[in-house]
């Protein structure tokens, strides 16, 4: 019968009858010192150049989802992140935007290029989320969409003849926009992040943070972190909005077992943990988006012009947009993709394969 194991071939001449066969002495390799010194240039470092050239030729994919109520500046924020018109515009000038009766997901894909590096960027918006009087189960279409992308990737992966590069439409990061109320997280915010943080990387941000003073911003962040201790979870019904809550929001995430990105469980070494600890201290980021340039001290800057001055979105003293940009693009983009593949997608893959192997 045929075998998938390769046949062992010998380069030695066949033994002649009558000749005594010499006893084979097994070779042993002594372990060398860790980090042994080279006595000349080998060229190992050139592998980095090879990886860079290959990445520049093939490019890579990045898929981001933005979730939040209408009017929180989701499209403007995405355009500010990538400094181009990559997100949808809800309505044209002079036309009134119609709020969808249910959550509708809209994806737009662009290929953007910077210094020879190409990136296929897909932005998924969720118009209609949180805009109704009764927002019960409004997260279901979003969960369904994320799982559909996992399923699409899984179906391509289990084919006998697979593509050399499987198209990746999985959501690598979900930016959740919290309204700048200055008080506490709503039950809708808690319920959404609790459900979505189990299947996707969730990064919460305080939208339109320029509507808060610095003191209000700091207090709001603390409330997001600490939250109401011992407070019962409110059911997602309209009347729950009327229930008074203790004005406390970073321990609220802990109280409700919400693990936002970057997750502590996935820090691989002390350097990563130290960096991510500094990031976790700033979450949720208080951000301001703007897609218009203004003249400030002879320089062109992105910002929002007000009667009392210009809010520079890339100035860390004005808002925390630079922290969000660094997290999503400059420092953790590959890590977002790795955790999506090795953790969230892997959990989905194991669950689906167990279901398919279950008898009956």
From TrEMBL:
GO terms for cellular component: cleavage furrow; cytoskeleton; kinetochore; midbody. It is found in: Chromosome, Centromere, Kinetochore; Cleavage furrow; Midbody. One of its GO terms (molecular function) is GTP binding. Residues 1-25 are annotated as: Disordered. Residues 58-355 form the Septin-type G domain. Its main location: nucleus. The keyword Disulfide bond does not apply. GO terms for biological process: cell division. CDD domains: CDC_Septin. SUPFAM superfamilies: P-loop containing nucleoside triphosphate hydrolases (SSF52540). Keywords: Cell cycle, Cell division, Centromere, Coiled coil, GTP-binding, Kinetochore, Nucleotide-binding. Residues 1-10 have a biased composition (Acidic residues). Belongs to the TRAFAC class TrmE-Era-EngA-EngB-Septin-like GTPase superfamily. Septin GTPase family. This is Septin-7.
